[in-house]
Amino acid sequence: MPMSPLEHDRRYGELDQVMRAYAGLAPDDTEDRPSTALTAYLRHTWHTRPWALGMAEAQLREYARNPPGTLRRRLGEFYAVPDVGLPEAGVQDWLLLLADHIRRSVEEGRVPARSAPVTHWEWHARFPELGQLLGGWFSQDMPDEFGARDDSHEAALADYAATTDPQIVARLVGELRELLTLELDESDYALAVAELGMEVDWPAPYAPSGWLASVAVRLEAFLTGK
After folding, report:
1. How far apart are CA 219 and CA 156, in angstroms?
2. Structure pTM?
3. Is residue 153 classed as helix, strand or coil in its secondary structure?
4. Are residues 34 and 100 in the same domain?
């Protein structure tokens, strides 16, 4: 019988978050150094949900010590660790290595310095609402939905504002302001919007950061009714 969502989260929820951080990245953790993926997970989690690190360490260690058999995985009674490119015989040792890195980070206060996101997972974990906007309203389907006119970006933004709860819109404005305070190069802002799901060009004559700033202003105006 498949697990209920509550049981899944209680037993494997944070383990799943760690595994998601490895999507598209190599599990090249060593005894001395966590991988780019795990460092991104540690950085984001330390600064947003530090209490979850203990859960991650415990779930990783428990899973490594008691891996599910093939039948129970097929029945959906256990979480199946995604294929990260390691031989099956090495997955348990790798999970224990991740647990050791997380424990060491907590016990020794090894907190990755705050910085701009580095991985695809970290961009979406840190800016989830911006990812919803860019991936949902500014995907490659935007010209079909809002036309290929000069005002299509404005039309898409107006549709987002009109169909989204104002509290979510306000949260998005905060994410935009946070992203702009990173003071990245324009090439890095271009990378950021691509990582967050934007598949069309930003409108002329804006640079990426200028367009993001204009989006924040337009959404603030919507919230205040101006």
Report:
1. 12
2. 0.90
3. helix
4. yes
Peptide bond into 2 cis (omega under 30): no
Longest dimension (CA), the chain: 61
For 49-185, where are the alpha helices, taking DSSP H only? 52-65, 70-74, 88-107, 120-126, 128-137, 142-146, 152-163, 166-181
Number of domains in the chain: 2
Would you tell me how many other CB atoms lie within 10 Å of the CB of residue 161? Answer: 18
Residue 121 lies inside a defined structural domain of this protein: no
| pLDDT tens sequence across 107-117 | 999 999 999 99
Helix, strand counts (H, E) of the chain:
12, 0
In the block, residue with structure tokens 């890195």:
101
pLDDT (tens digit per residue) in 132-190: 999 999 988 887 778 666 578 999 999 999 999 999 999 999 999 999 999 999 999 99
- Residue 60's domain comprises 5-107
Question: Could you tell me if 81 and 14 are in contact, meaning their C-beta atoms sit under 8 angstroms apart?
Answer: no
Taking the chain, what is the end-to-end CA distance rounded to the nearest angstrom? 54
Residue 202 DSSP code: P
Instruction: Determine contact, residues 92/67, Cβ cutoff 8 Å.
Output: yes
